[in-house]
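FIELD: query
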Amino acid sequence: MLELRDVDASYGDIKALRRISLSVREGEIVSIVGANAAGKSTLLRVISGLMKPSNGEISFRGERIDSMPAHGIVRKGIAHVPEGRRLFPYMSVLENLQLGAYAPECRKLFDESVKAVFEVLPVLKERKGQLAGSLSGGEQQMLAIGRGLMARPRLLMLDEPSLGLAPLMVRRVFEVIDQIRSQGTTILLVEQNVHHALKIASRGYVLENGSIVLEGSGNDLLENPHLKKAYLGMV
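FIELD: result
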């Protein structure tokens, strides 16, 4: 579904991504894990068109997208839920969901889409008239995911969805991610919570200093000695 070949990206003179090659197959959860400043968020920004690569190719369903504008990439079927949620706090839950269905083809299917989102995330139905800024951190994360789903993506990219959440809510977020995948949406997940991210992943990549240093199935990576020592605190 998604393929990156030798992708580089820079902030001025600082190279953030170095020859990144990876793939995401339809129906998978693929997790990208690594430390702060490894380049994980930059990777999603490059895929979604918010930042242009300086080298390499990005293809989605067989079509080059690395020169497309961000709104064109959304319309091709990729939705990006950014780190920090980025909600509109003085708009209601329902209004934030409406913004997720901004593309004309999504607006036509708004009622169908919002019904599907409420089935996966029933707390949003209960809170639909409430201001987004008044929700708890976990509820705000659910709303950010719901807003992404309103674009009816084939590929949903999630950037640090568990960041700052209590352990019970972290577990719930990962349950929701797995449920979304089981209903047919492919997931590309960026996470610092290495154990949870790889436990639900079909496959994973470990990013260090802008380069991929390990790849494999989620289970195989969890058993990798380097990853255990560097990210799980195990010797």
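FIELD: remark
Residues 81-152 form one domain.
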